[in-house]
Specification:
Distance between the termini: 69 Å
Largest sheet: 7 strands, mixed
Radius of gyration: 40 Å
Strand order of the largest sheet: 1-4-5-11-10-7-6
Structural class: alpha+beta
Number of strands: 11
Oligomer: single chain
Bound molecules: phenylalanine
Shape: elongated
Helix content: 25-40%
Number of helices: 13
Strand content: 15-25%
Length: 395
């Protein structure tokens, strides 16, 4: 059996010879191993901290080496460790793991043969690239239909020179209602069944927090930050305490628009929205404006487009069109001229909004219903179900 010799000659040639002898001895011992060998003592013989072969190499070669040979001997000893340690460890691995279970360390002959291959061979086998295997598939994601619709609408207005503005979903009563001309307790608040954050009774009403019921508060927030002229679109998520059904969800999305400048008229509003509806639904689509009410616009209107399913005829496939309830029109959004009272609220922070000098229009549309029409979705709840089978249809 191999024993580590003392060195007298520290030349490179003598070191190489000693290293070769040691590796030769290791190889011979590995060849002689069988499935019945005691691998634990094989391992200890080479790697034991006290008196293992590698430890002896340290003691007998490195420590006594003269100063001028230390560097060379150190390098050789390290190389040796890097070769010997992984080979011995690899071979004795199972037995280290199972040493407390006698019998389990007996390996089948096949297994054993494999483990006797050199470390390099094993590593090569593990890292080898099989170019005939199929590659890793990364399934393509897709935009959610509501987000896609949002991006389309925003793009239409960007092309008209609008920029994008955003605001918080948790909003104060002041921005969601009061500054938009909904006085406290005014019945107009009832149109937007609101989810309030609890436990705020000690705060002044205007500071109490709620989930915004529309994107209109971002009109005020943006005007407070930026002087006129202003042209912005505001996409975002909004919340109302509505019971869910095929056309209602307590979460939905809106895109808001606001233009403020000198001499903005209702004609500008009509022309802008007519252009946008044609860009979104095709150049055949007609728009009509219907009197309505919002506290923050005066006058106010609802905008309807000719039904894109029956072409405005109200009849389809020999019966009444179900999408427009045979009316030929579909209501899509609310709009109007910015009420001068709104500029009054904004002026507290941004005096440039003088209702004597400027005017503006605003509009707001629900995105989900538009997405439902565009993609033929009959239940709004599907947008929020997270069902992959539904979403995969849009990849
Ligand atoms: N904020 C209104 C709503 O949610 C829509 C709207 C926006 C109306 C802007 C007029 C102007 O019902």
């Amino acid at each position: 059996m191999y024993t580590v010799p003392k060195l007298t000659d520290y030349s490179a040639a003598a070191l190489d010879k000693a290293v070769a002898e040691l590796l030769g001895a290791l190889e011979a011992e590995i060849k002689a191993l069988t499935a019945d060998s005691d691998l634990r003592s094989f391992r200890d013989r080479w790697l034991a901290r006290k008196n293992g072969v590698l430890a002896q190499v340290n003691e007998l070669w490195l420590k006594p080496a003269p100063q001028d040979a230390k560097k060379l001997v150190g390098a050789r000893v390290n190389q040796l460790k890097e070769v010997v340690q992984p080979q011995v460890e690899r071979l004795s691995l199972y037995d280290l793991v199972d040493s407390r279970k006698p019998g389990l360390d007996r390996l089948r002959e096949e297994d054993w043969k494999q483990r006797r291959q050199s470390v390099l061979e094993l590593r090569w086998a593990a890292e080898r690239l099989d170019i005939t295997l199929p590659g890793v598939r990364r399934p393509l994601g897709a935009q959610h239909p509501v987000i896609r619709t949002m991006n389309e609408i925003v793009a239409v207005f960007r092309n008209l020179g609008y920029s994008v503005s955003e605001g918080p979903e948790i909003e104060s009563d002041y921005y969601n209602f009061e500054s938009l001309n909904f006085p406290p307790h005014h019945p107009a608040r009832d149109m937007q069944d609101t989810l309030f954050i609890g436990g705020q009774e000690s705060k002044a009403l205007r500071e109490r927090l709620l989930l915004r019921t529309h994107t209109s508060p971002v009109q005020i927030r943006t005007m407070e930050k930026m002087k006129p002229p202003l042209r912005i679109v505001i996409p975002g998520k909004v919340h109302r305490n509505d019971a869910p059904d095929a056309t209602h969800s307590p979460i939905f999305h809106q895109v808001e628009g606001l233009a403020v400048d000198t001499n903005i008229t209702f004609c500008d509003l009509k022309g802008t929205l007519e252009h946008a509806m044609k860009a979104l639904f095709g150049s055949d689509v007609k728009t009509r404006f219907y009197p309505s009410f919002f506290p923050f616009t005066e006058p106010s209107a609802d905008v309807q487009i000719s039904c894109i399913f029956c072409g405005g005829k109200g009849q389809r496939d020999g019966g009444p069109c179900r999408n427009c309830k045979a009316s030929g029109w579909i209501e899509l959004l609310g709009c109007g001229m910015v009420d001068p009272a709104i500029f009054g609220f904004v002026r507290e922070k941004q005096p440039a909004y003088d209702p004597e000098k400027i005017s503006g229009f605003a509009f707001g549309m629900g995105l989900d219903r538009i997405a439902m029409m565009k993609y033929g979705v009959s239940d709004i709840g599907q947008f929020y179900s997270g069902d992959m089978r539904f979403l995969e249809q849009f990849t």
